[in-house]
Every structure is written in structure tokens, then in C-alpha cells.
Amino acid sequence: MENNFLSTPLIKIKVDVFYHSCPHNVTSGFYSCDPEEIASKLKGMKAVVIVGKYDEEHIKLYKEAALRAGINPLLVRVVDATWGENSIEENKKILENGWVAELALVEEKGLPVSRRELIKGELKIAKDRIDKPVWISDMCRLYRACTLCQDSCPYNAIKVDKKNGVIIDYNKCVACGLCVASCPMSALQFPSFSQQAIFELSKIKGDKRISCYKDTGNSIKLPCIGMLSAVDLVMLRSSGKVELYCPGCELSKNLDGLKSTVEDLNNAVGGFSLTVPGYNIQPKEVEKNIKIEQFSFLANKAEGRQNIIKNNNLPDISYEVQINEKICTMCESCAKWCPTNALTIEYSNDSEKLLFNPDKCIGCKICINVCPEGDNGCSSGSKAIKVFTAKEVKHEIKTLMKDEIVRCRVCGAIVGSRKSLNLVKKVMKERGLECEDEWLERCPTHRAEYSYKKFFGKEVRFKPRRGPNDLGRV
């Protein structure tokens, strides 16, 4: 079944293919293991797939050659000559969408000194790149309320600052990829493997073996398979079976969430396998194809998730939301911040409702974070709103809260809910301030008019102060 993707257009990077041959790898191509000589052939390239030998010795050689040639090493991918043309095409697709590579943290390092450089007394410094997740601010609209990435990191390497955004401590970060998998907006990505690259790989028909750079076999190599979200897995599965392989390292202890996701997906549609040291999931018989329709922004995994679940009846965790009517003031903050519109406000002439759609909720708990009623922390137990896993999946939209709408006594504009105005009155009285209903139940302009006439007299004409943008207006 053809995948019909619609995404924000990105400039594709030109990718070259360089064939390397040496005594360890007798094929056609450039024959030398001198990094300077290889670098001379790579100069001028932006991104390159090197077809040669995939082992520790040669990967180190190719990286040094790329640095000497002035190429961002995160835009270099190595394919063993025995892996075939399909592997070359997959790695070209990854590099074509490697725009995040330029956002990686730069680290200057000295290159090994050759005999020629030693004689000349030359010392070469190159700009290496650190392949750890980067925060893309333009793709993150939620950092003043969302803490999903921070909560996902077991190493305390991420902090969400409401003023400055997401701050990553690269001294603590181990590149496990859990923050990348957790972000519903794709605002955290690995420089060597963009979110767009994952989606583009999904368009290539055929089964896929996916592993990390430590795997010496033929596979699509990621920094860590822990970076894959449920959306990523289903996208990849839409064009064939998916085999996930972890060769084992200190990061394999972080894959419990991935194991659970793969098990659920395998039970639903089959075609998934996962191998981790001491753990193995065998693929179930493929029962059906994955259907993916167009949606507005493919990198928005929150939207993609809803699209995929809806069209394929996939297993999903359903969430429930409750409102504490004693402390909720219908301030609307939860609905304004909800990234998937699971919470919305519905107005009528004399009332407003807070509605909840469980089919859109992703359990991000941003609504709890932004709720002003309750303690200053993010404890769901003492906030006006509470999110929890539902015992049974429900698909109907329900009303969480309903309140009277108060309109301006002069112009009829909405002033707020009755509960929110009652709170304003209570707070003002606690602070010893006067609060008349005649003043409270007016829009800001007519409140100012009321206060002005009360102070200067009813016969005085009220003229609102004009700002610099009001010059020339009648």
C-alpha cells in the first residue's frame, strides 16, 4: 500500500557515494588507507556514503578523512561493500534529510599527525561534532508548560526552563535517545539521524533491520534504537516487516518502554521483532497492512500518532481527565495549552463547557503543569485537573465542567466565567480592595470607564488614553 505523506518541505542535501578499496576489501574503488589521500578525494563534498569496510578500524579511518576534508562527520555514513545497493540507497536517504547535523555541538580536536606533517611541523585542528540530541526551538511550542523530555531522562541531563527553553547538559547526556522518543513535537532530534529521515525511510518498500552503530552487520544504524517512538515504528512497519536488534551495551537497560511498545504493536499487526541481550520478541504473522493518510505536519508526532491509531485500530493507552469543581475556575489555561486539542472550550449564549476528547489525549500532562489552581508544583493530586490512565477505552467526548458566562453589562463582550469572577472578587476582598459587581461584570474598557466616572463624577466624559498605535484614529 502506498504511503501518502505530506510534510513541511525541507531542502534536500546533495549526497555523493565514494567507493573505497583496500587489502581488507578487494572491490573496485579508490585503493588507499592513507587518510590524507582519501580526504583529497572527499574534498568539496557536503555529504557522502562511503562504500568500503564497516569495522572499527575503517570507521575511524573514514572519520579522520572526513575531518581532514572539512566534512561534517555526521554527514558521513559507512556501508560495507558486501551489503548491496539497497543499503546504499537507505543511507543516501538518511543523509539527504540530514539538516539537523549542522545544529550539533562543535568540538575542536587535533588530528593524528602524519609523517609528512611531523616533518613540516604542522598540527591540524578539525571541527568534530557531538552526536547527542539537540533542541530545535522553532519546533517546540510547549516548553513553558511541557516537561516530557525532562521526565523521560534517567540521567537528569535535561532541564526545561520556562524562559530559555530546553537545556541539555552534554556532560550527563549518554545519547540514549529516550528524550527524542518522548517529544510529541519532534523538537529533540539526533544530529546524525533526523526525524524526517525516519519518515522518508518509511517510503522505501521492503523489510528493514534496524540497529545501532555498534552492530557490524547489515542494518539501518541509529545512535540507539531507544530513540524510536511508537509513531516511528508504525511508519517503518507500513512498508515492510521491522526487525530491531540491540547488540548490547550500558544503554540496553533503558529499553523497557520500547519492549512494551513492540509487544503491543506485534500483537496488533504483527511483523515486529526485537532482540536485546537476554530478551527476544519473535514477529507474529502479518495480518494486515498499515494505512497512513495525509496530515499537515509529519514531524509533529502527536498528530501523526492520532492519525495512525485512528486508521489502523492499533492498541493505545487511553487517558481519563477529571476536574475538581471546588477549585477549578474555568480559566481555560488547560484548553489553550493542550497540544492535541483533547481539551476544548465550547461557548453558548449563556454558558461555556470544558470538553474532553479521549481519542486525542496523549497523556502529556501539560494541562496539569499550566493549571493555576492548586499548589505551585505539578502534583496532579492537588491541582484542579487530574490525568490518569483509563481502565477501559472510551471514545465519546464528555463535558468535564460547565459554568455560566458573564458578559459585559455595557457591550455584551465575554468577561469570563462566573467561577473565575468569584475568585477575583474573593482575592480582592482578602487584600482589602473594593470589588463591586457593577465594576467586575464589565470588559476591561468599560471597567476603566466605570472607575473614571466614579472618581471624577458621572457627568465627566471618559476618553481612553491613546497609545502610539492609535495616532490618527477618530
From TrEMBL:
<feature type="domain" description="4Fe-4S ferredoxin-type">
    <location>
        <begin position="164"/>
        <end position="193"/>
    </location>
</feature>
<keyword id="KW-0479">Metal-binding</keyword>
<keyword id="KW-0408">Iron</keyword>
<protein>
    <submittedName>
        <fullName>4Fe-4S dicluster domain-containing protein</fullName>
    </submittedName>
</protein>
<keyword id="KW-0411">Iron-sulfur</keyword>
<dbReference type="Pfam" id="PF12838">
    <property type="entry name" value="Fer4_7"/>
</dbReference>
<feature type="domain" description="4Fe-4S ferredoxin-type">
    <location>
        <begin position="319"/>
        <end position="348"/>
    </location>
</feature>
<dbReference type="GO" id="GO:0016491">
    <property type="term" value="F:oxidoreductase activity"/>
</dbReference>
<dbReference type="InterPro" id="IPR050572">
    <property type="entry name" value="Fe-S_Ferredoxin"/>
</dbReference>
<feature type="domain" description="4Fe-4S ferredoxin-type">
    <location>
        <begin position="131"/>
        <end position="163"/>
    </location>
</feature>
<dbReference type="InterPro" id="IPR017896">
    <property type="entry name" value="4Fe4S_Fe-S-bd"/>
</dbReference>
<feature type="domain" description="4Fe-4S ferredoxin-type">
    <location>
        <begin position="352"/>
        <end position="381"/>
    </location>
</feature>
<keyword id="KW-0004">4Fe-4S</keyword>
<dbReference type="GO" id="GO:0051539">
    <property type="term" value="F:4 iron, 4 sulfur cluster binding"/>
</dbReference>
<dbReference type="GO" id="GO:0046872">
    <property type="term" value="F:metal ion binding"/>
</dbReference>
<dbReference type="InterPro" id="IPR017900">
    <property type="entry name" value="4Fe4S_Fe_S_CS"/>
</dbReference>
